[in-house]
Amino acid sequence: MGQILIRNLEDAVLADYREAASQNQRSLEAELRAALLRAKPMTVSKRQDALKRLAAIRALTPKGVPQTPAEQLVREDRDGYRS
């Protein structure tokens, strides 16, 4: 496993991560490791794979079939229209 050293972090950023680590009952190092995993960038190949999967999902909907916008469905659900 690799190691890194990050210099010149703002005190406020470090304080926020210390507070988060305390709230999550883990060390500062573990909190920063978790934050790096959450913010892990998507590689080009993973992005291409995701775009292919999305295109396959889009292809399942026949052309010319009108789709109800998601916000309308949510609104109807909240208003009790779709009970």
Number of helices: 4
Mean pLDDT: 93
Helix share bin? 55-70%
Structural class: mainly alpha
List the helices and strands in order: HHHH
Features:
83 residues; mainly alpha; elongated
Characterization of this structure:
- Helices cover 59% and strands 0% of the residues.
- It is mainly α and 83 residues long.
- The chain has one domain.
- α1 (11-23) crosses α2 (28-38).
- It starts with 10 loop residues before the first helix and ends in a 5-residue tail after the last helix.
- 1% of the residues are buried.
Brief summary:
With 83 residues, the chain is mostly helical. It has one domain. It contains four helices and no strands.
Q: Layout of SSEs?
A:
Blueprint: H1 11-23, H2 28-38, H3 44-59, H4 70-78
